[in-house]
Design goal:
Layout: E1 7-14, E2 17-21, E3 24-25, E4 32-37, E5 42-46, E6 55-63, E7 67-74, E8 78-85, E9 89-92, E10 97-106, E11 110-116, E12 129-132, E13 141-148, E14 155-172, E15 175-177, E16 183-192, E17 196-201, E18 204-205, E19 213-217, E20 221-226, E21 235-243, E22 246-256, E23 270-272, E24 279-281, H1 284-298
């Protein structure tokens, strides 16, 4: 508050309460202190400002002629703060999801929701509440609530949404393996929660540790390994993937793969007959003899 030498009395008031009169402190709040009381300036300071300090403040000046007042309105700005947000949620595919994010601040913060996903573009809600109807597995993941009011950097918190769905077998291929070699059948499945796998040959379930076999189950696939394939191993196999929401299966065949053996030539024009295993003279040798005979007759 600016003053001059005509001033005889000065005071600071908050609404109708006197804070300071001259050098005398009238309020009990330790945060309010006198900064200056000179011939040109009369100033107070409010330390550690709170939202309750917001409002009008009046500098009252008494001169020989008449009193004067100067008024200032204190606006307190507060950084945004998220005070309530939904907990992580697990829901079955097709269900409805409601997420809530409540924040305080001055001015009132703007609330936005976005899906943390490579395929997501922009905000999916500009409100405290996010409603998802008929949620799909592609909509699972983290959802980020952001509260901003330009007083400071936005504050963010995330909610994890897990979408449960029954198994879906994405890959199951038949395999050809020669007798005596190592064979592998692979079954890949997507599911939440992760699928449990079982293997069957015809209608008989294959047990872990069965002689000559190894069943390796992971979160998203199951591998059936034959260490030394025999004739009895060939046939139809079924992979069954299941969780609490359902099950699915896929069939594949382990079949005998035969290869034609190639043997190095036993001389010019010799090839191996894959049908009866006999060696025969190739026709290329006779093609060379015929032109030589014709050439001899000309001379």
């Amino acid at each position: 508050c600016s003053v001059d030498n005509r001033v005889t009395r000065v005071a600071w008031l908050n609404r109708s309460s006197i804070l300071y009169a001259g050098n005398d402190k009238w309020c009990l709040d330790p945060r309010v202190v006198l900064l200056a009381n000179t011939k040109t300036q009369y100033s107070i300071q409010i330390q550690d400002v709170d939202v309750y300090d917001e409002g009008p403040y009046t500098c009252s000046v008494q001169t020989d002629n008449h009193p004067k007042t100067a008024r200032v309105h204190l606006i307190v700005q507060v950084s945004p703060k998220i005070i309530e947000i939904s907990s992580d949620i697990s829901i079955n595919e097709g269900g409805n999801v409601s997420l809530t994010c409540i924040a305080t601040g001055r001015p009132d913060p703007t609330i936005t929701w976005r899906h943390i996903s490579p395929k997501a573009v922009g905000f999916i809600s500009e409100d405290e509440y996010l409603e998802i109807t008929g949620i799909t597995r592609e909509q699972s993941g983290e959802y980020e609530c952001s509260a901003s009011n330009d007083v400071s950097a936005p504050v963010v918190q995330r909610v994890k949404v897990t979408v449960n769905y029954p198994p879906y077998i994405s890959d199951a291929k038949s395999s050809g393996v020669p007798v005596g070699q190592k064979g592998i059948l692979l079954c890949e499945a997507s599911a939440v929660p992760s699928a449990d796998f079982q293997w069957y040959k015809d209608d008989k379930r294959l047990a872990e540790g069965q002689k000559g076999l190894k069943v390796e189950n992971k979160a998203f696939f199951s591998r059936l390994t034959f260490f030394n394939v025999s004739e009895q191993d060939y046939g139809n196999y079924t992979c069954v993937a299941s969780n609490q929401l359902g099950n699915t299966n896929a069939s594949m065949i382990l079949y005998e793969e035969t290869t034609t053996a190639l043997t190095p030539w036993k001389g010019p024009g010799a090839v191996h007959d894959g049908n009866n295993g006999a060696w025969r003279r190739g026709g290329c040798g006779w093609l060379l003899v015929l032109p030589l005979a014709q050439l001899a007759r000309q001379f």
